[in-house]
Amino acid sequence: MTEDAISPFWTLAGASTHLVGAVAAATAAVWLLSRRKGFGDAWPAIVIGLALTAIRCLIVAVLGDGGLPASLAEAARNLAWLGVTYRLFAVDGRHASLGPIRPVLAVLAAVELLQAAIDVIIVHLAFGPAIADVAFDSIVLLRLLITVGALVLVHNLYAGASNQSRSVLLWPATGLAVLWTVDLNLYTIAYLTSGWPAEVAALRGLSAIALAVLLALGATQERAGQRFRPSRAVTFQTFSLIVIGAYLAAMVAVARWLSYAGGDYARVMGLGFVILASVAAILFLPSRRLRGWLKVTLAKHLFQHRYDYREEWLRFTRTIGNSGGGAPLGERVVQAIADIAECPAGLLLAPGDHGEMTLAARWHWPAADVPAVALSPTAVAFFEREGFIVHMDDLRSGRDSRGEGQVVPEWLRQESRAWALVPLIHYERLVGLVVLARPSMARQLDWEDFDLLRVVGQQLASYLAEHAGQEALAEAGRFDDFHRRIAFVMHDIKNLASQLSLLARNAEKHADKPAFRDDMLVTLRNSADKLNALLARLSRYGNGAIEKVDAVLATEVVDAVAGRFRVGHPVVVGECLDEAVMANREALEQVLTHLIQNAIDASAANRPVYVSAAADGVHARFDVVDSGTGMSPDFVRTKLFKPFFSSKTGGFGIGAFEARELVIAMGGRLEVESREGLGSRFTIRLPLTATSELFDNRAGTPAEKAA
């Protein structure tokens, strides 16, 4: 057969597909050499058929499809696969019972040999164009007879097989059907057009590739229940290689086509195309969005489940267990759950002191503006009750399935990067809430996402609860050590106080001069009172005990405390409440003194500290505000009110803890708002005396009526 002139593109395409087909067929042949049991008695014939197919594809790739070597190689290949078809009938013994098989195969083999002989004669004898056209039509017609007969045999091979044999025959029968069907279409077009369809012939290498792959898959079916299950990583990498290979092949093909086009600008056009294609590859292939889209698409269409649970669990364990990596537990918790959903950042909210949730950790999200109370107690109760994972896109679009729209705070709605809220629940208690940032390839969450995130959230909740328990035990141990040391200090001071008291009593009896005696008594009594006051304060460490709560004028306490600091540092008294609050004056002065001193330590020398007292509903509100260095949210939540943590050199770390305990013992609350570089605001809330009396009267009315 002769080959008409075809375009350079189809020449390149034909050479490429046949070269890949040769590699695939040769690889399958070598691989099947060690798997003799894959196809029973047909195994040697299949190996030979693959080898001859590889040789034929290689000849076409190098020499083209129109010469005598390609025609003879195709004849040898066809004879080999006819022999394979006959041997496959032996899988269930039909080669002995079906008499017509041998005559049909013999006829098809004879026709193939006749066609090869005609080709040899045409090449060696010079005939005119008329004879050559007749020979071409004859060869095409003979090849049509061969392909039709082979397809009939393949149909009978599989359709008449027993149920037990079909599992073995499925793959080779499918591969042979693909091979003969492509040839049938090719020769049908050639016969009807009286010309060689070079475009279709250029793609015949694909049928060799399909045949090799299907036979390789069929050889693995000898193992019961075995399925082709590549991992997600292998699938994604393989698909990426295919995309890159297709991209390179397209680049080379277009460049070759431009070079064949000729002309003065062909070289410039080819170079320009390569440059533009390279720039496009550099810009788009490393894109996180493109990789995310590929992963989602492959998981959706190639796998039954979106997640590789084994791989996800191993990554989760590595992230949580990497305690030596320097990242605190809170950040590792966020990272562990963000990696699953392919999220680039996240936040962790943890329980505060009054049922709310505050910011506990950030992971790659420094710009998120989180208020001091990140989640209200009402929202915490909702998540504890429902255990519901909130998809923020659904919430913003108006979909509210369980009432989450009423509890999700406004700052989360306005934060455009917030994508999902995952509660961490441990024994029906919310120990944390993870806010996930929007991934590069955002998608709609489905049941599999919710199930996996819920299970992972429960596991992370147990880690956080265990960590909190360990911290509580460590704190209790430090308190125990502190109390033991304080006991010795109290013992020594108590002895000193006893000696001073004894000295005072002896002086009352033996002093000769009345003036000296009076002065000595005043001095000794003052010293004894101071020591006893110190003992009282030391005894309160750890339990926040308050001896008595009375009505105390807020303005008197603020003025008295502020007056102690006006000489060394500017302390400005703002609005001052002229009402009484329920407090212990000594304890309230001690708390304000500590807060003002800390504010002075954190501020520059020329920066004043502001103190004020005002009514706030049923409470009095004492504010101590500075514009000093401020504190990070992590320090406020984890260290400010923890005993034995101090940011001052030589500090004991007990002042802030004691201040909060004293305020709580007086029935109030101590709150703090701070920003690094901007300053801090400490707020003491104590009940007003009038409010307490009103509540006491309402509580006592039923008793009085009963009396």
From TrEMBL:
Domain Histidine kinase: start-end pairs: 488-690
Transmembrane residue ranges: 12-33, 45-63, 75-92, 104-127, 139-161, 168-189, 201-219, 239-259, 265-285
Transferase among keywords: yes
Pfam families linked to this entry: GAF, HATPase_c
InterPro entries named among the record's database cross-references: GAF, GAF-like_dom_sf, HATPase_C_sf, HATPase_dom, His_kinase_dom, Sig_transdc_His_kin-like_C, XrtA/PrsK
GO molecular function: protein histidine kinase activity
Entry EC no(s): 2.7.13.3
SMART domains reported for this sequence: HATPase_c
The protein's name: histidine kinase
Gene that this sequence comes from: prsK
